[in-house]
Amino acid sequence: MPAVPTDPRHREVYDLAVRIGLAWRALRRGSSASALRDFLYGSGEESIEQGQMDTLDLLALRPAWRMSELADALRVEPSTATRAVQRLVNAGLAARRPSPEDGRVVQVEITEAGLAVFEAVAARREELLTYILKSYKRDELPVLADMLERFSTSVNGFVATHDTTP
User: Fold this and answer.
1) How many domains does the chain contain in total?
2) Among 16, 90, 134, 165, which residue carries the largest CB count within 10 Å?
3) Any residues with CB less than 8 A from the CB of 107 and at least 6 apart, and which?
4) In this predicted structure, what is the pLDDT of residue 12?
5) Alpha helices in 44-161 (DSSP H)
6) What pTM was estimated for this model as a whole?
7) Is residue 26 part of a domain?
8) Is the residue at 5 inside a domain?
9) CA distances from 127 to 40, 49, 74, 142, 166 (A)
């Protein structure tokens, strides 16, 4: 059986787990986190929240979304998706329309203003990632991508299989 990463009897693996945990914490709430959020999403009246940006990212992918599809794609409850969309609609970044196939169904789509915000944030993300990825050798990038994908999948797997309520 492989060593349990958090078991201090396996010192080398334990030390690596601690380093990974500290790096994760630094990414989540490090001193640069709020400055980075301001850079990516703006500050003041022109800013957009990360959750709203997640929604805009999806809306930019295709012409229209049913609310249930959007909630599923965001991995949130439909009421949470509805609130996120309402904030975007209020800001003029998204619009609700009746479905052409079934007028009882409401679809959500990105507006021109929403597309402009999406493109501006996408350009800043590209600038950030270009800066970050310059610190890696070209042959390290596929390994980094694989590891980050596995890390994300593992976090999602944990949440799916564990009761995460405190």
Assistant:
1) 1
2) 16
3) 64, 65, 66, 96, 97, 98, 99
4) 82
5) 50-59, 67-74, 78-90, 112-133, 141-161
6) 0.80
7) no
8) no
9) 10, 19, 25, 19, 38
| pLDDT for the residue numbered 21 | 87
CB 56 within 8 A of CB 88: yes
What is the CB neighbour count within 10 angstroms for residue 36? 14
pLDDT of 111: 97
Residue 151 in domain: yes
Which residues in the chain come in under a pLDDT of 50?
Answer: none
HSE (side-chain half, CA atoms, 13 Å) at 25: 6
pLDDT tens-digit readout, 72-108: 999 899 999 999 999 999 999 999 999 888 888 889 9
Whole domain around residue 141: which residue ranges? Answer: 31-158
Question: H helices of 42-94, where?
Answer: 50-59, 67-74, 78-90
Residue 148's CATH number: 1.10.10.10
Q: Order of strands, edge to edge, in the sheet holding 106-110? A: 65-66, 106-110, 94-98
Contact 89, 59 (CB under 8 A): no
